[in-house]
Amino acid sequence: MVCKSLIMTVSAIISDEKLKTNTLLENEVKEAISLLDRAGKMLMSSSTEYDKLEAIIEPNFLFVYTWCAFDLHSRLDDTGSQQLLLIKRFANSKCCNPKHLLQIGIDASQGPSSNHEVAIFALSTCLSTLLALPSPDYASVALIVRKLVSLSSIHGIDTNDDATMETYKQAYRIMVGLKEGEYPVEEAKWLSMTAWNRAAVPVRMGHMDEAKRWMSMGLELANKVPGMQTYRSCMEDFIAGFEQKLSGA
């Protein structure tokens, strides 16, 4: 099938670039995009509905097509909204699975051509899909939660504080009811300690209620993590002293 050949040709171009650590020139990027556009037109001429493409082409080929298009368009200016639309269309298709979204989310979260909106969408959608499964892969869940927390930190604590807190709360809700160690212990410890450490900035700025909110979040997470008894005791003592100091101020 000509369509598959075009997709694999573009995939090979990108793979060769990464292996040789050479950067494609702008005209080479546009040529590769032109090849993908030809493949896309062939797909859409066969089916007007994106979700029916699995009857024409194998799911993995559609993923490769989407991933290549995302990678190439990320190198051009003013294509952010086009990238997000591309990933949303793929996410809504039956061809998409959590592993696809995880790879897209990780790729979109790093590198010089990162796309914050695509990364957040792909990772959040992947997380929701995983949690809806009868037996979620909690290693992948933990990886996604860490990525979401890190993304909000990279793009500014001040503007994403509520969103960041919600990610920590979601992690806590995930841990509730799980067997000990079912959620990766080191990742749970990381969440507890980073939540606790986020209180430092509000304290310096005199935002004591916000500081206490983060301390409490850190302690709540620590209560769900085996092996953090000493940390929990120190956290509880610190919070008690902190509240006493505030009440006497």
SSE layout and pairings?
Elements: H1 2-20, H2 26-46, H3 59-73, H4 80-91, H5 98-108, H6 116-131, H7 138-154, H8 157-175, H9 185-197, H10 200-205, H11 208-222, H12 229-247
Helix pairs in contact: 1-2, 1-3, 2-3, 3-4, 4-6, 5-6, 6-7, 7-8, 8-11, 9-11, 11-12
General form: elongated
Radius of gyration in whole Å, from Cα? 22 Å
The structural class is: mainly alpha
In round numbers, the mean pLDDT is 88
Number of domain units: 2
Helices and strands, in order, run as HHHHHHHHHHHH
Count of separate DSSP helical elements: 12
Poorly predicted regions are none
Q: Which bin fits the share of residues in helices?
A: over 70%
The percentage of residues in β strands lies in: under 5%
* Beginning-to-end CA distance, first to last residue: 75 Å
- Describe the sheet with the most strands: none
Tell me the number of strands: 0
Key descriptive features of the protein:
2 domains; mainly alpha; elongated; 12 helices; 249 residues; single chain
Summarize the structure.
The chain is 73% helix and 0% strand. The chain is an all-alpha fold.
What does this structure look like?
The chain is mainly α and 249 residues long. The chain has 2 domains: 1-115, no CATH class; 137-249. 73% of the residues lie in helices and 0% in strands. The chain is built from 12 helices and no strands. It has helices at 2-20, 26-46, 59-73, 80-91, 98-108, 116-131, 138-154, 157-175, 185-197, 200-205, 208-222, 229-247. The protein is elongated, with a radius of gyration of 22 Å. The model has no long low-confidence stretch (mean pLDDT 88).
